[in-house]
Amino acid sequence: MKRTTRAMVLAALGAAFATVADAPAQEVRDFFNIVAPNGADPWVYRHDDGWYYITYTTGRDVTLRRSRTISGLGGAESRVIWEPAPGTPYSKEIWAPEIHHLRGKWYVYVAADDGRNANHRMVVLENPAADPFEGEFVFKGKLADQSDRWAIDGTVLKLGEGEAERLYFVWSGWEGDRNVDQRTYIAPMSDPAAISGPRVELSRPTLDWEKAAGPPTINEGPQALVRDGRMFLIYSAAGSWSDFYCLGMLSAKADADPLDPASWTKAPAPVFASGNDVTAPGHCSFTKSPDGSQDWIVYHAAKRPGSGWSRSVRAQPFTWDADGFPDFDVPTPHDRPIPVPSGEPGRLRLEAEKARLEGGAKAEAAEGASGGSGVSLAGVESRATFDVPVAEAGTYVVAVRYRREPAGEGERNARVDQRVLVDDRPAGTIAYPDSGGGRWSAAFARLALGAGTNRVSLAPGAGRAEIDALDVILDPLPPDAPTPASPKGRRAR
């Protein structure tokens, strides 16, 4: 449906219920910068089929997700594509998977071990299907050079196209058998599933900000950027468990030999670090907006100072300076919305304090809330009901902005959720992970909505959370996209 037609339909639908609610839903083109309330080591790849394919660490398997938008990554469809058999050298501590499309096939690179960290190695999976949600990801084996040392956070640097294409594997590893420091290594690849030469060290922690919170000292999570005659490796530095975690940068001319350490120059200061009440941004990936006009960085950050490996996933645009280097600026704050990526659809934003509040639900002033107030649901009969107008029937990604009150260490992993109803019919639950010591976060769901006005209600479930607003991404998922009720694809081993 064309935007003008959709706008006319939404305006008519909004007028129809404006007398019922205090204000109709408003179409906005911004979002609050948390795209997944839990997650670490996010990898996002935009394929030419229009989908964003997403992976991040689960620790137990490789889960593949796909989304039509960056700002709605948390509502992505997901499938487990690899569960290692128990008792193998690669059955535990499964970290930082990445999915790449290389030479007509899909490849997943992931770190795993047998339960002993010193045995961490990189492994590779392969799937020849055109659609990575179809076919099977086959375990191809360990991906290592002749030194066969500890290795995590592997990625691929691709240079050239067609017959001139060259592939290099880049990862974080130990020099020997002890965890003294983590260094960045590179090696040539003969094909996407094989290293064809010895590893070469490109970087080790030498600067004070790289060595913060050590030992061990850290260079990890390398990610490649190639643009306008230059190549970059953006890496994470300092203790990943600490508030000092940040991003550093190696740069080289694109026509230089990437296997020659002398080709690379290390930036003397972090290129992305804590700021705007965002702590320890790190382990990133890079993608384009849907229309290809913007560059975006997707990264994890600590949920609060001192929270260590308790992280959420964020995304924001970045630019390039006059010398052709990436400029990541500073993290965007969690309480100030930013424009959605160029080419993404708008959203309906419904403020919780404007919803119909029943059974003891009440609105109260709340710092950082988009409309100035949040809503608490108290008692089993309480409910907040939003009138959600959409122009066409389909499955929509919705985001609920919420926060949990500061909790003690033992309560941060306590289950908190709310029941979701559409037109008074149960439509599942929405989980609210720890939001970071009373900070606002975002939780996502996928709801089947009918053309016209839908009554979407939130009702108490386990624990308690405060609600700020509900956003509905206006473009429904494609009709042939699997939904939670109609699974597609299968697990691979």
List how many beta strands DSSP finds.
Answer: 35
Beta-strand share of residues: 35-45%
- Shape from CA axes? globular
Mean pLDDT figure: 92
The CATH top-level class label of the largest domain:
Mainly Beta
How many strands, which pairing sense, and closed or not: the largest β-sheet?
7 strands, antiparallel
CATH homology superfamily name of the largest domain:
Glycosyl hydrolase domain, family 43
The residue ranges in which pLDDT falls below 50 over 5 or more consecutive positions are 12-22, 483-493
Structural class: mainly beta
CATH architecture of the largest domain: 5 Propeller
Helicity, in percent? Answer: under 10%
Number of spatially distinct domains: 2
Per the CATH scheme, the topology name of the largest domain is: Tachylectin-2, Chain A
Total of DSSP H or I helical runs spanning 4+ residues: 2
Radius of gyration computed on alpha carbons: 23 Å
Q: What's the N-to-C terminus distance?
A: 41 Å
